[in-house]
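Morning F.,

Quick status update on the modeling queue. The single chain you submitted on Monday has been processed. Sequence for confirmation:
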Amino acid sequence: MGRPMALNLAHAGVPLTVWNRSAAGSEALRAAGAEVASGPAEVCRRADVVLLMLADGPAMDAVLGRGTPGFAAAVAGRVIVHMGTTSPGYSRGLAADVAAAGGRYVEAPVSGSRGPAETGDLVALVAGEPADVETVRPLLTPMCRQVFACGPVPGALLMKLAVNLYLITMVTGLAEAFHFADRYGLDRRLLRDVLDAGPMASTVSRAKARKLLDGDFTVQASITNVLDNNRLIAEAARHAGIASPVLDACHALYRETEEQGHGPSDMAAVVHAIASRTAALDRARLTL
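Structure tokens below.
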């Protein structure tokens, strides 16, 4: 998602220096007018605000040189903006380390997948010191349709996990509904139309219903990515003593889907795990 987000910044005329772990990913940004740095250290030297859209905590630590003498040079005097999804505890620790090194820190995870990233329709959740949040807010506008302030760190990441809990359970329920309809021989297109016309319709339900209808699991948010998010939410729930029975059922289904080899597929491919469970019931009935 980082490349389309950065492209929206470039198209908005924001002076931009970029670096991507895969060099080829920077070429479209170069064509859009961004300066391509030789490495993350150069980005930090040239920028007052450093936006990080990376896969996980270890990737962020490696890029910032956290735990090495280069970390202070990378963050001192700059606003470091964490836009990915990690555990709240990781973000809290990173915020403390950035502050100790003389930098400022803002959480800004985004809600949305690749499509909204391309169209600038993401929703940003921000947390940090109010003055730092206001410094970052104008840079979020070209990438995001709305920006919500969520208080101090790690409030934005906790809010993102709550949002993702709903997303995961909603898409899993939608996949199960399509599987139910299939087994009863219902018209799947009619099911799609009824859902689209009803009060439960949303951008997500329409996109995922189309995937389920067509059997097209081209990735927007992958099974592997959703499984990792599910784990983060479950860990946060356990840490606070919160029951998460629906999430736990989803976790098992996404894990089974990944084990079946669908990890790179879109999250709607969770229907494969549901179908496999039905097939197991069929086999058990035949055995009896």
